[in-house]
C-alpha cells in the first residue's frame, strides 16, 4: 500500500508546485507495414502500392492548475467508428485516468489511409485477405493509441499556451463544383486557420492547427496524409523539435480545388503545394503576436439526438434489392437485416458534442461527423469569431451533418450520402436546431462552472 499512497500524494501535489499549464506532446507512426485496402472512396477496393510519406497519430496532453489532464488527439485517418471511439476512450480512462469529456478524438478525414475496423463498412467489399490486412492494422492501431496517450502524459512539463488565427485559400465549397445544376447551391467556406502553440521557454513544443477542408487532394494508391500530411511535415521541418498536429474543422462540404485525377505525380505536387500554403499560414501566425491562453480547462461532453426521416418500406427494399449491385445492394440488404432483426432501421442517431473552455473566453467546440461549414460560421458568430474554434470530425464519423440550408438544398452532403453511412434516410428539419441547442447548453455549462 505504501508506494501507492506516496505516488498518489505526488500526483495530487504536482500541479500546485507548477502553477499554470503542463503540456506534453507525442506522436506515433501508424504507417502500414504491408499493402492495405485504402479508405475514403467507395466503389472498387483500392490496395495501397507505396508510401508517399509516413502517417501519424499525435497527442497533446494538457494538465491545468487544478491537476485535471485533458488529451487532444489528431490522426491521419479517415475517421473512427463508435466501436473504435469506445475502445480508445476506455483504454484512456483505465490506463491513463483520462475522463471521457477530457479526450477529444479528431481525425483529418484522410482519404489516403488504411481501412480500419467498421468505419464506413458499407463502402468496401473486401476479400478475406483484405479483411485480414484491415484487422491486423486495426489491432496494432488500438495499441498505438494507448502508447500515444502514455507518451504524451509522460512528456508533461510546464508550458505556455497561446492562440491566434490565420487564413488560407485552399478550401472551395465543393457543392458548386458538380456541374451546372449545382451552381445554384450556396458556396460558403471557412478559410480560418486557428492555431494553438505550446512553448517551453522559447522552444516550440507543439503547434495545433485546423482547417475546414476535405483531405481529398489525392486519389491514387499511395499512403500519405494528403495536403494535411504535407502541411504537418513542412511545419515540423520549419520548426525543429516541434510536433505539428492537424485538426479537421468543418470541411464536410469543402474540397481542396482544383484537383488532378489520373496523374498521380502531378496530383501529389499539388497536394504538397496546398500543404505548404497551409503551413505558411500557420508559420505567419506563430511569428506574430499571439494571445496567451489561461487555465483551467473546463470540459463538458453532452449528447443530443438527430432524427431521421422515414426510410424505404420493407416490401420496397425487398423488391428493389435484387436489381442492385455493389454499395447500393449492401445498403438495401443492411436495411432489410435491420427490419428482420431489430424491428426496422433506427429513427434517430446519438450525436455527441464536446466543449473545452480555456480560462475565460477561448473555447473549442468539438462536433461529431462530417460537419458542414455552416456550423463553424454559425458558432463562431454566436460565441466569438476570435475566441471560438469549431471542429467537426470528432468521435465517430457518423455521417455528413448538414445544416438546415444544406438539407433543403439537397445533394450529396445530407441527402443522397446518408445510405452509405447505414442511415435509413436524411435527417429531419430539426438537425441544426438540435445541435445548436446542445452547443449553447455546453458553452453555458462551461461558463457556469467558473
Ligand atoms: Zn467526407
Describe this structure in words.
This protein has 450 residues and is an alpha/beta fold. It folds into two domains: 384 residues, no CATH class; 37 residues. Helices cover 35% and strands 25% of the residues. The chain has a five-stranded mixed sheet with strand order 5-4-3-1-6, with helices on one face. Strand 3 and strand 4 form a beta hairpin. The longest helix has 27 residues. The chain is globular, with a radius of gyration of 22 Å. The chain starts with a helix and ends with a helix. The relative contact order is 0.14. The N terminus is likely disordered. Bound molecules: zinc ion. The site of zinc ion has 3 residues, from loops. Zinc ion (ZN) binds next to loops.
Give helix % range: 25-40%
Silhouette: globular
Give the spatial strand order of the biggest sheet: 5-4-3-1-6
Multimeric state of these chains? single chain
List each distinct ligand once.
Answer: zinc ion
Largest sheet features: 5 strands, mixed
Cα radius of gyration in angstroms: 22 Å
Percentage of β-strand residues:
25-35%
Tell me the total number of β-strands: 20
Relevant terms:
single chain, 450 residues, alpha/beta, globular, binds zinc ion
Amino acid at each position: 500500500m505504501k508506494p501507492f499512497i506516496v505516488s498518489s500524494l505526488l500526483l495530487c501535489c504536482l500541479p500546485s508546485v507548477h502553477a499554470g499549464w503542463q503540456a506534453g506532446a507525442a506522436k506515433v507512426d501508424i504507417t502500414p507495414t504491408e499493402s492495405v485496402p485504402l479508405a475514403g472512396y467507395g466503389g472498387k477496393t483500392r490496395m495501397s502500392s507505396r508510401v508517399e510519406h509516413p502517417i501519424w497519430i499525435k497527442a497533446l496532453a494538457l494538465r491545468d492548475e487544478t491537476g485535471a489532464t485533458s488529451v487532444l488527439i489528431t490522426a491521419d485517418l479517415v475517421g473512427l467508428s463508435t466501436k473504435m471511439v469506445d475502445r480508445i476512450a476506455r483504454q484512456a480512462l483505465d490506463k491513463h485516468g483520462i475522463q471521457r469529456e477530457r479526450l477529444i478524438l479528431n481525425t483529418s478525414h484522410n482519404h489516403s489511409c488504411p481501412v480500419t475496423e467498421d468505419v464506413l463498412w458499407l463502402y468496401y467489399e473486401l476479400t478475406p485477405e483484405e479483411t485480414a490486412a484491415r484487422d491486423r492494422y486495426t489491432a496494432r492501431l488500438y495499441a498505438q493509441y494507448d502508447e500515444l496517450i502514455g507518451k504524451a502524459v509522460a512528456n508533461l512539463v510546464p508550458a505556455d499556451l497561446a492562440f491566434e488565427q490565420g487564413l488560407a485559400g485552399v478550401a472551395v465549397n465543393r457543392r458548386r463544383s458538380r456541374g451546372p445544376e449545382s451552381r445554384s447551391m450556396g458556396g460558403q467556406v471557412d478559410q480560418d486557420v486557428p492555431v494553438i502553440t505550446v512553448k517551453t521557454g522559447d522552444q516550440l513544443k507543439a503547434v495545433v492547427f485546423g482547417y475546414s477542408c476535405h483531405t481529398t487532394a489525392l486519389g491514387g494508391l499511395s499512403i500519405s496524409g494528403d495536403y494535411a500530411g504535407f502541411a504537418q511535415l513542412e511545419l515540423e521541418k520549419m520548426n525543429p523539435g516541434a510536433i505539428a498536429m492537424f485538426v479537421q474543422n468543418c470541411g464536410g462540404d469543402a474540397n481542396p480545388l482544383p484537383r488532378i485525377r489520373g496523374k498521380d505525380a502531378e496530383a501529389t505536387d499539388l497536394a504538397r503545394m496546398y500543404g505548404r500554403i497551409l503551413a505558411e499560414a500557420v508559420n505567419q501566425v506563430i511569428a506574430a503576436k499571439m494571445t496567451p491562453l489561461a487555465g483551467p480547462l473546463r470540459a463538458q461532453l453532452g449528447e443530443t439526438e438527430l432524427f431521421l426521416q422515414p426510410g424505404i418500406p420493407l416490401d420496397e427494399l425487398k423488391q428493389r434489392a435484387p436489381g442492385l449491385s455493389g454499395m447500393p445492394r449492401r445498403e438495401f440488404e443492411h436495411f432489410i437485416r435491420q427490419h428482420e432483426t431489430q424491428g426496422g432501421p433506427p429513427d434517430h442517431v446519438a450525436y455527441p458534442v464536446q466543449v473545452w473552455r480555456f480560462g475565460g473566453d477561448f473555447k473549442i467546440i468539438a462536433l461529431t461527423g462530417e460537419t458542414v461549414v455552416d456550423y463553424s460560421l454559425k458558432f463562431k458568430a454566436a460565441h466569438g469569431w476570435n475566441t471560438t474554434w469549431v471542429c467537426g470530425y470528432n468521435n465517430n464519423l457518423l455521417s455528413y451533418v448538414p445544416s438546415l440550408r444544406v438539407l433543403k438544398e439537397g445533394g450529396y452532403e445530407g441527402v443522397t450520402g446518408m445510405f452509405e453511412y447505414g442511415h435509413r434516410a436524411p435527417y429531419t428539419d430539426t438537425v441544426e436546431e438540435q445541435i445548436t441547442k446542445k452547443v449553447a447548453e455546453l458553452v453555458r455549462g462551461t461558463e457556469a462552472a467558473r
